[in-house]
Amino acid sequence: MSKARLDEVRAAFLADLEEAGSDAAAVETVRIRYAGKKSGLLNELLAHLRELPNEEKRAYGRGLNDLKKEIEGSLAEAKKSAVIEIKESSGKTSVKGHARAVAAGGQGRIDVTLPGTPVAQGAQHPVHIVRRRIEEIFLRMGYDVEAGPEVEDDWHNFEALNIPPDHPARDDQDTFYLPQGYLLRTHTSPVQARVMESRKPPIRIVVPGRVYRRDSDLRHSPMFHQIEGLLVDEGITVGHLKATLETFLHALFSDDVEVRLRPGYFPFTEPSAEVDISCIFCDQKGCGVCSGSGWIEILGSGMVDPRVFEAVGVDSDRYTGFAFGLGLDRIAMLVYGIPDLRQLFAGDQRLTRQFA
Amino acid sequence: MIFDSDWLTEYLDGARNLDTLAKRLTDCGCLVELREKGDGAEKWDVEVTTNRPDAMNHRGLAREAAVAVGGQLLPLEFELSECDEDATELATVEIADPALCPRYVARVIRGVTVGPSPGWMQRRLLNCGVRPINAVVDATNYVLFELGQPLHAFDLDLVRGRQIVVRPAQAGEKLTTLDGEERQLDSSMLMIADGEGVVALAGIMGGADSEINDNTTDVLLESAHFDALSVRRTARRLGMHTEASHRFERGTDPEMAATACDRAAALIAELGGGRVCRGRIDVYPQRWEPQHMEFSVAALSAFAGLEVPPPRVMEILDGLEFFPELEGDQVRVSVPPHRVDIDRLPDLYEEVIRHVGYDAVPSQLPVLPTTPGHRNPNWELIDRARDAAVAVGLNEVMTWSFIEPETDELVGSQSLCPGEPLALDNPLATTQGVMRRSLLPGLLSAARTNLNQGERTLGFFEQGRVFDLEDGGPREHERLGIVLLDESGDAETRFLRLKGVIECVCGKVGLPDLEWKRGGEPWFSENAGANLATADGKTVGMAGLVSKDVAARWDLGTDVAIAELDIDIASEPALPRYEALARFPSVVMDMTVEHDGGLNYAELESATRDLAGEWVEDVSYVTRFPLPDESGNVRTTQRLVYRHPDRSLTQEEVNTEHSNLREGLAERLGVTFA
User: Fold this and answer.
1) Which CATH code is given to the segment(s) B587-673?
2) Which of A61, B241, B308, B320 has the most other CB atoms within 10 Å of its CB?
3) Would you list the domain boundaries of chain B?
């Protein structure tokens, strides 16, 4: 009974001290309550000793002595850190949290299961994490990373890419127009044209960047991100394209994914291929992500159309090349399981924090 | 487009397994996206790419399917019996602009009774998503979905003068189309007119006045070929999109016009009990000429990276109706009229490659010089800024590149962008009407969003571009924006925390020595805002606690700290230079200066450094507090580190230096010492 009383006081003391933290005045209040000469609780407990039967006195006395030492020790410690705190506060150094931890728990055995003190750490946006991973893969294969303007002219965004005015393919890329014939680029492909206009083959580049289409629903956002690849040299073949995409997709996902090329259509490549990977979530058994098909559409690609070469001044008899492009947001959503594209642009720090 | 599986397989030899057929079609580029049960057949949603209008009908897709499964396309069979009456005496056709209408075929069917079409036809049309109307109209739709040729049936009695004139509209002309809408026409639009006025929009939709009705007995059937661009422009201009315009825009087969006309006439006569008049009225001023192309199988194989045997090349091109001829290694083809997408060698290569299959192409990595890849230097620096912000504990967010014009107007002129706003011609919403000239509006909205979600502290940044119109052209600038909100601290603490973050980031992008000057209104309160300038006076940043007005606009407190930096001028920071590590002890001395509020810390420290002797290794800020009296003066404590490179300093030596420095400061700045 009496032993329990000692434990009760110990617990109350520790709680009070913790609350006082590094506030010197509060620590003093705690000292008076427990170790005060006149009416401190320790005195009261000592008085109780006299009323105990002899056989209990010994154990109780030892316990009381331990408690007294503990309380005095903790108070001394707390006072010291409270003083440090005052000094440091004028030097803009806060040691508040630290001092409290020492005062409260520093005495006995450390509870090693307590959580570690959080360290402030930031995180990149998931789209940029994915972008940089992809850039790294291609840098290691000797590709340069290039950038270009988001406000484009019609030539680079459409005409140089074999999409003349009134071409039906313009329907698929609903465009935001700006004054003076400018527009917001609908894909990163114009940078292909810009690089080929200014540089001689061999060319190996990837181009990440922000793009815009006038479209908004669950699966479309008027603003999103792409990365584009281009390789031009003599004797480049469809087999080269296929191997490059396989190598890239294996590096990005895993060596186990299967890569499938399906014929497709893009005005700036001929032939064109849509590229699927075997579903990474269900082992091709069919799931919600692959809509039961076992395949996930991942990128578009093809051999550069000779018309594009001619438009940008590359000799189409001498050179061939391939190009490919994919949506970074889509990859981020796929890899991290983010359900809504628009969530990426809501400025919500709770989203980013998950990627620290 | 939706296909009826029964209709599709009707043109293929032998019974076909639908699963195999769907897979092979997908493999050769006609993705079968969805298969569902329809009436008497499966409904297949097939994604036919926009360059392949020839496959946007059952017979065209069957042609692909036949090659894909290695089968035969059965010939189109129908019987057309004509009566003795000569069609050319019942109506006339005239084309005013052959470039826009290279061919116009018409037939006349007389004595028709307009009633519903039979069940088999209705089922197929319904499976394809077309509502049956009457036997005549259904027959034209049926042939459209069968052969890809859009047709139109006029009630011949309602074609005034029994004459058809294909011509551009005249300004002010109007037409009420079949959907009941009255359309205003202009001279850029191609029309079908009769003896008195407009009766149809060429290639898009017929007019209500001449449509087939219950009393129709004589039908004039149109099967024409219109210029793709002309139809596309007119349809866009009128905001219309029909099955007919969809196909004309992508390119139809001029040779098919006659066959389709015969086929539809035969169907109408068969279903409506009429008689087809003798002969076609066929005005064909610009006859289609086949294009011949030639390539070597070796070149094709080199391009593909796969040896394709010549017989396989021949088999594929033959099935696709290119009439190939092989001579040695050379293949000579004639491009069929339905293939509007083929005019270069890679187009032909694609035909072979997609039917051979990408699976058959061996993977082979290209071999190029072993040069390392480089990041574009600016791109690299931008990532460096981003990394620095993450390293100080901030989370990266993205907000929209376009903002509300009203917000832009309010803050735009006070942003780092000197130019005029860049407004979108066709924004999705007025709230996204103009390209942002600053990251701050988006970030402040994000701050509000986060607080609404129950976040108590904020620490995030955005790296992105802002846009303006300058010197007559659009410009883009890279920016970094920061938002900080802590639960604790006074205004100065908050401001200095933000400043610490900025200093850290600026150091990483080669902008270490920016001058901080009070300013940045109306973003910031006049007590807690600064502009950041380079040595040559260019403002490249702003930072501070939001002003009352800004706080109110975004429903925030004035304790939110924000900043925006121009990182266009960032540069590769200089490599660190090693400095010899000190071998002798230092002496640390604090110095507390009393001065009036007019002297700012930067001036004090710069004077201290200037006057300090060569032994002073470092000067740093310790604290500042206002005097409790009414003088308005403050006391600022600096910490000085004295050290000699080659020996230990004595306390006396340091004391002398220190008191010389005090005197110097007193003289230069008029400060006193506590």
Assistant:
1) 3.30.70.380
2) B320
3) 2-69, 82-283, 291-358, 377-566, 587-673
Query: Helix, strand, coil % (nearest 5) of chain B?
Result: 35, 30, 40
Strand, coil or helix: B537: coil
Q: Report the C-alpha gap between B270 and B153 in whole angstroms.
A: 15
Identical topology for domains B2-69 and B377-566: no
In angstroms, rounded to a whole number, what is the distance separating the alpha carbons of residues B525 and B581?
Answer: 44
How many whole angstroms separate alpha carbon B640 and alpha carbon B630?
Answer: 30
- CATH number listed for the domain at residues B82-283: 3.50.40.10
User: For residue B247, which phi and psi values (nearest 5 degrees)?
Assistant: -80, -45
Between chains, do B427 and A176 touch, taking CB under 8 Å as contact?
yes
Q: What are phi and psi of A258, to 5 degrees?
A: -90, 140
CATH number belonging to the domain at B377-566, selected among 3.90.180.10, 2.60.40.3090, 3.30.930.10, 3.50.50.60: 3.30.930.10
Mean pLDDT across chain B, nearest whole number? 93
Which residues, 6+ apart, have CB-to-CB distance to B357 below 8 Å?
Answer: B27, B28
ipTM over 0.90: no
Beta strands at B92-95 and B198-201: parallel, antiparallel or unpaired? unpaired
Q: How many Å apart are CA B368 and CA A226, to the nearest integer?
A: 25
d(C-alpha B3, C-alpha B146), whole Å? 10
A263 at the B interface (CB within 8 A)? yes
Q: List all residues 6 or more positions away from B289 whose beta carbon is below 8 Å from its beta carbon.
A: none
Strands B152-155 and B103-110 turn out to be: unpaired
Among B588, B589, B622, smallest CA distance to B604 is for B622
Interstrand relation of B402-403 and A151-153 (parallel, antiparallel or unpaired): unpaired
Q: Which of residues 420-449 of B touch A (CB under 8 A)?
A: 422-428, 432, 435, 442-443, 445-446, 449
Q: Where are the alpha helices (DSSP H) in B12-88?
A: 18-27, 58-69
DSSP code of residue A132: H
Closest by CA to B477, choosing from B401, B588, B576, is B401
Residue B421's H or E segment, with its range, is none
Using the predicted structure, report yes or no on whether residue B174 has a pLDDT greater than 80: yes
Supply the CATH classification number for the domain A126-353.
3.30.930.10
Rounded to a whole number of angstroms, the distance from the CA of B85 to the nearest CA of chain A is 43
CB atoms within 10 A of CB A253: 18
Domain spans in chain A, listed from the N-terminal domain onward: 2-105, 126-353
Distance CA B136, CA B265 (A): 9
For B459, which residue in chain A has the nearest alpha carbon? A349
How far apart are the CA of B387 and the nearest CA of chain A, in angstroms?
8
Task: From chain A, pick out residues whose CB is under 8 angstroms from the CB of B366.
Answer: 231, 233, 236, 240, 243-244
Of B500, B492, B510, residue with least CA distance to B391: B500
Query: Per DSSP, which regions of B21-129 are E strands?
Result: 31-37, 42-47, 82-86, 92-95, 103-110
CATH number of B291-358: 3.30.56.10
- C-alpha B366: how far from its chain's center? 30
What is the tens place of the pLDDT at every residue in B178-201? 999 999 999 999 999 999 999 999
Cα–Cα distance for residue pair B467/B463, rounded to 1 Å: 13
pLDDT tens across A134-174, in order?
A: 999 999 999 999 999 999 999 999 999 999 887 877 776 68
- Helix extents (H) in B479-600: 491-508, 548-553
CA distance A16 to chain B (A): 23
Two tokens at B490? 């006074």
Q: Which of A163-167, A238-242, B283-287, B539-543 has the highest mean pLDDT?
A: A238-242
Question: Quick one: which of B223, B225, B203, B221 has its CA closest to B212?
Answer: B221
For B2-69, CATH number? Answer: 3.30.56.10
Q: What's the predicted TM-score (pTM) here?
A: 0.83
d(CA B540, CA A347): 24
